[in-house]
Design goal:
The chain is an alpha/beta fold and 201 residues long. It is built from 7 helices and 8 strands, in the order βαβαβαβαββαβαβα. The protein starts with 7 loop residues before the first strand and ends in an 11-residue tail after the last helix.
Amino acid sequence: MNQDHPTLLYIHGLNSSALSKKATQLTEMMQHLGLSEQLRVPELHHHPREAIAQLDAAISELGRPLLVGSSLGGYYATHLAERHGLKAVLINPAVNPHQLFDGFVGTQQNLYTGELWELTHDHVAALAELEVPAPQDPQRIQVWLQTGDETLDYRRAQAFYRACALSIEAGGDHGFQGFAERLPALLSLAGFASHLLNVDP
């Protein structure tokens, strides 16, 4: 793909999917604008090493995409943004998830595909391998948090990403209410021309 064109890579979270609400809203917006070729929303493998390999391949294909990571996808996006020097928008991101998952090894089910899989200690170790220091560049990393997140304590992300550009909304939930209304801002951050964004989805 021509690296002069703005591109987006959406990274879903644990037991989520390319079929999730936010992923679907973004996909539909890009289709409506005729920009589908400049977006990738991979269906990620549950194992972190496999998922990162998928995401590295997508980055190679897209050039220098804006990374949009939700929940565990925010953790992946942080790692990839630091490694590749990319911009990222993190939505209710998980912070150091290997510290959270260790007590939850066992059978998991994807909420969208129905796939059953086993969360193992190797998954946890693989997550730990992806840990990077807290980003320090507010020009490159935006973090969107909602205090009503019922899955992750937003204060962990608030503290970890304190040097970044933080947006903290009262209420909401882990899925991030009002995401569709933020899509024009997201596409603007990615570098899409403003005149494209004045179209109702």
